[in-house]
Specification:
The structure is a single chain. By secondary structure, the protein is of the alpha+beta class. The protein is 28% helix and 24% strand. A seven-stranded mixed beta sheet has the order 3-4-5-6-7-8-9, sandwiched between helices. It has a five-stranded mixed beta sheet with strand order 11-10-12-16-14, sandwiched between helices. The protein has a two-stranded antiparallel sheet with strand order 1-2. The radius of gyration is 19 Å and the shape is globular. Bound molecules: 2,5-anhydro-1,6-di-O-phosphono-D-mannitol (AHM) and magnesium ion (MG). 2,5-anhydro-1,6-di-O-phosphono-D-mannitol binds next to strand 4.
Length: 331
Amino acid sequence: MAQFEEGTTLDRFLLETTREHPEASGQFVTLLKQVALAGKLVSARVNRAGLAGMFGATGSMNIQGEYVQKMDLYANETFKGALEHAGVVCMMVSEEEEAPIFVPDRFRHGNYIFCMDPLDGSSNIDTNATIGTIFCVFRRCSGGDGRGDPSDALRSGREIVAAGYIVYGAGTVLVLSTGEGVHGFTLDPTVGEFFLSHSDIRLGEKTRSYSCNEAYSAQWDPRLRAWLDKVKEPSLGWSARYIGSLVGDFHRNLVKGGVFLYPPTAKTPNGKLRLLYEAFPLAYLVENAGGAASDGTMAILDKVPGSIHERTALFIGDRDNVEEIVRALRG
Ligand code: AHM
Ligand code: MG
């Protein structure tokens, strides 16, 4: 793959990397450009949320039984709007919508299926903590008619053709992989462009930082608690970092090193995080950066969701630590 200098625009990066793959249709580049456009719109709104009356909940609950924040709705509508008229997706799946999203007939010839959590960690919006959009892309099923049959999206994570996230933090960063490395692009809000800022991100070996909601540890599998107790041995030099926003915690660990854990708990015995549009995209990124993701029994990307909102346990980060956690759980 071509090497790119820091400061390369996202558009140039997309055009040049897909030129190396003549089989990739122009639709693929258009899709990723529309994702970047939606990300800029959401970023602008997040930055003005306090002024624009966008803090707080709408008062309704989503399909997951969680309170919908005003920014959740805005992000969902913005990503949908950017993609449904572009003629590049035949179907979309969103955390905010119970059923797959209907794409109007005249635009439904697109070659791709887009799955997203439009605004992960949105319960943090009122506190200015990092939140973000997580997404992955599949090619349309050869037999699928794109009429919103959910089974078209129920595919192995190994079939993902691109995945990424956009974090809205102190800055806005788009992290993307199309299967050849993981690259980060920082939005320069003064010109409205994403520029390459983190080229070919690689996870370090056996990093010494963990991210989890430790308050739930009494509900975890005792073998996992034993692993946690072990790494707390002071001479090992571990530390903990947890925001409570998957995309923010993952981004930190990708850049600085670390392992993220969301095991099953009494309240969420199958795990809390969603397989299709939270765990899959981040697992695709982490594997492309040299790391690993597991549900404790198998690699996340080898899983096939049984339903679009299926939940999973998630252990994700550098390969050594994830493998050690899996070994501990096998006990
Ligand atoms: P959300 O998609 O409704 O924002 O919920 C998922 C979030 C993740 O971002 C985060 O990792 C997790 O929930 C935090 O859960 P907890 O508060 O139980 O630690
Ligand atoms: Mg989420």
